[in-house]
Write a structure and sequence with these properties.
With about 260 residues, the chain is an alpha/beta fold. The chain has 9 helices and 10 strands. The chain binds 6-phosphogluconic acid. 6-phosphogluconic acid (6PG) binds near residues 40 and 145.
């Protein structure tokens, strides 16, 4: 758990972690696999990573990174709601990354189930895994909605219970649309999950997710925080303001 005093510090914490993880993975295995998060929060991180006046751009091994997505809206890549579009605008269009290193979810496919199946096939092919196997992303970046969702795993969604498929395309009643999302087994298998959570409106949910009973049906963000690897919550003081700090210290803080 890293709690930043302001939004600038919040994004620097995230950028430093991204740079460290990517360099370590490339030194160890020659490449770094990351599933990017959508929503609005990560845009500040992506922009900081590409800023030529900041230290991160020069030290991140861009040419050895494979970019995936944690989820996508059921829209095309040009749509303002597209997570790919946000990441392309804020990050991918600004750094030296081969197109073949960006593994996009085809949100434009009129059949969301087919889009999910094709993305699953692409993930299996890249990680060289057969049916039943699981990919281990070096890093999965996630956000958390004020309702406790993460990626496109929303409270009450049947996708929360998916244990076979790597990618699902649930109908999300709350938004009246399909989404395409990595499933819990994939989030749980990641070497590292980093949550980026900031803002006053997330404080109550963050307290439940981190310090409440384990009830992933209601707080799907808890699924990823049970990851096999390391889970790190990077938050600002507004989102963290209701947390029992003593309890965090007792738990060893780094979640
Ligand atoms: C999406 C994201 C979603 C997001 C949360 C938080 O497609 O919207 O995957 O899980 O991370 O909704 O969004 P904000 O960062 O905008 O608060």
């Amino acid at each position: 758990m890293r709690i930043s005093g302001n939004i600038d510090e919040f994004y620097r914490e995230a950028a430093g972690e991204f740079a460290r993880l990517s360099r370590e993975a490339v030194i160890r295995r020659g490449h770094f696999t990351v599933a990017l998060s959508g929503g609005t929060t990560p845009a500040g991180l992506y922009e900081l990573l590409t800023d030529e006046s900041e230290p991160y751009r020069a030290i991140v091994p861009w040419g050895e990174i494979h970019f995936f997505f944690g989820d996508e809206r059921h829209v095309g890549p040009e749509d303002p709601k597209s997570n790919y579009r946000m990441a392309h605008t804020a990050l991918l269009s600004k750094v030296p990354v081969e197109r073949s290193s960006v593994h996009r979810i085809e949100g434009e496919n009129p059949d969301p189930q087919e889009a999910a199946a094709k993305y699953e096939e692409a993930v299996r092919e890249f990680f060289q895994i057969e049916t039943g196997g699981l990919p281990s992303f070096d890093l999965i970046l996630l956000g958390m909605g004020a309702d406790g969702h993460t990626a496109s795993l929303f409270p009450g969604s049947e996708a929360i219970h998916e244990r076979e498929r790597l990618v699902a395309a649930p109908w999300v009643e709350k938004i009246g649309a399909y989404r395409i999302t990595l499933t819990p087994p994939v989030l749980e298998r990641a070497s590292c999950v980093v949550f980026l959570v900031c803002g006053e409106e997330k404080a109550e949910t963050l307290r439940f997710v981190l310090q409440g009973d384990y009830q992933p049906e209601r707080f799907p963000a808890q699924l990823a925080s049970a990851a096999a690897g390391r889970t790190l919550f990077i938050t600002d003081h507004l989102a963290a303001r209701l947390l029992d700090m003593e309890g965090l210290r007792e738990e060893g803080g780094e979640r």
